[in-house]
Specification:
heterodimer; A: mainly alpha; 9 helices; B: mainly alpha; 8 helices; globular
């Protein structure tokens, strides 16, 4: 397959943007708060570099091995990022909100079932079982991620849990990109696997441009600081949960009215 | 076994439509949320006689919010309770207000993320309140409301009362400027 200048431009811009994002994650000290997300971006940078060198200096088998190893690691890290986002939203104090835990587990189960069902329905025109497995696997991950991000948003809004600025931006970017990936994988499956097809090239460009947009969005959002928050003291916590002052005030009021 | 490509595309189309509808619905809901404005949030509270609520609640619990001993608890007569609470309609108002109380706790999370714990506690309380009210609605359908009312209504009021105290404590502990507004409403 011959690369056009647009292919090269999108590829190079994506690589530079990911390097810039990695710089922002470390320089602005976000890597500590989002270790899996940082690992995912690092993997993308390393994968692009390694695949470039293997393509030019390695063997075909070596390229396939590197490509598929990185693809599996990519899927695992993407799921870890979903967990990271969920735990930052629903477990900000290191304990899962009691009334959310069950609902979230139920929605995760539903998401898994729908993703499995759609992957099973897919009939990719693949030549080898590995191609078929990869296509179904990509669709499964994209469907699962898009569902989980939408359900997380719905659940947090319905129970009134606010999202921190950074975690919300990461989730929005990944959610939008996984929805676009679902469209891409559907087109891939419907129109065929040939990389020479104009539809495939068009879909690839849309996907690369969407990812570039997401990375640029993360660079800007993660560079900016989150709104400052305050911490409760032990005394504040105690006064909220004992309720002594509040109830005593009412009791005195009631007793004084009875005396009158 | 796999389906025809067209069936698969239709299934994906349905999936994306449902997902985008859910996302759109919750996005609009979050924009319309009363938490967007303090005034709107307060306005969504239905006014009730707080002294009546305190009278009913403190007939059953002590200063710390714990149940009183059996000899000094539940001294109010069923007719008095009905009047003070405002019957089943009064309890439905408490049910609606309990949702606003949760949003009031959520509102504080923008400055104190730890208020999440209070909001969570309030959600559990609201669930308990709804359970009591649903018992009474069930009893009303069976014609047993007069028997069940004193027991469930008083417990529902206690739950609501403690929810209001918790929200006030949260605003007081956070030294938030909205406390005065809230004290007037609750």
């Amino acid at each position: 397959m011959r690369l056009t200048s647009l292919d090269f431009l999108l590829w190079a811009a994506g690589f530079v943007a990911q390097l810039a994002l990695l710089f922002v994650l470390w320089y602005r000290r976000r890597a500590r708060a989002f270790p899996y997300f940082t690992a995912l971006i690092t993997l993308n940078v390393v994968r692009t570099t390694v695949l470039y060198f293997v393509l030019h200096h390695g063997t075909k088998a070596g390229y396939a091995y590197s490509y598929w190893s990185a693809a599996i690691l990519d899927v695992i890290l993407q799921l870890c990022v979903v967990y990271e986002v969920a735990s930052r939203v629903f477990r900000p104090l290191d304990v899962w909100a009691r009334d959310v835990r069950g609902k979230f587990a139920w929605l995760a189960g539903l998401s898994l079932s729908v993703a499995s069902g759609l992957s099973w329905l897919e009939s990719p025109p693949a030549r080898t079982w590995m191609q078929a497995f990869a296509t179904k696997g990509n669709l499964f991950t994209a469907v699962l991620e898009s569902e989980l991000f939408v359900f997380m948003m719905a659940l947090s809004i319905s129970v009134g849990i606010p999202w921190g600025t950074h975690v919300a931006k990461i989730a929005q970017g990944l959610g939008a990109y996984s929805l676009i990936s679902v469209l891409f994988e559907t087109g891939h499956s419907y129109f065929g696997m040939s990389r020479e097809l104009p539809v495939f090239i068009w879909l690839s460009h849309v996907r690369m441009a969407a990812y570039l947009g997401c990375v640029s969005y993360w660079i800007v959002s993660l560079w900016n600081e989150e709104r400052a928050v305050r911490t409760m003291t032990e005394q504040m916590r105690a006064s909220i949960f004992t309720l002594q002052t509040q109830v005593e005030h009412h009791l005195q009021d009631l007793r004084s009215r009875k005396k009158l | 076994m796999s389906a025809h490509p067209l069936q698969f595309v239709v299934a994906i189309g349905i999936f994306l439509s449902v997902l985008l509808s859910i996302a759109g619905y919750y996005y609009i809901r979050s924009r319309r949320s009363p938490a967007a404005g303090w005034e709107q949030l307060l306005a969504s509270l239905t006014s009730i006689d707080r002294n009546n609520i305190a009278l009913v609640a403190l007939d059953l619990v002590d200063e710390s919010g714990r149940p009183k001993g059996s000899h000094e608890a539940a001294t109010l007569e069923p007719a008095q309770l009905w009047e003070l609470v405002g019957g089943l309609e009064g309890l439905e108002v408490l049910e609606r207000n309990s949702e606003v109380l949760i949003e009031l706790a959520c509102y504080v999370q923008q400055w104190y993320p730890e208020a999440l714990v209070v909001a969570e506690r309030l959600r559990l309380d609201a669930r308990e309140l709804k359970w009591h009210v649903s018992r009474l609605k069930g009893a009303a359908q069976k014609g047993n409301l007069h028997i069940s009312f004193p027991f469930y209504a008083q417990r529902a009021v206690v739950t609501y009362y403690l929810m209001t105290r918790r929200v006030l404590s949260l605003y007081e502990a956070g030294n938030l400027s909205m406390l005065a507004d809230l004290q007037r409403e609750l």
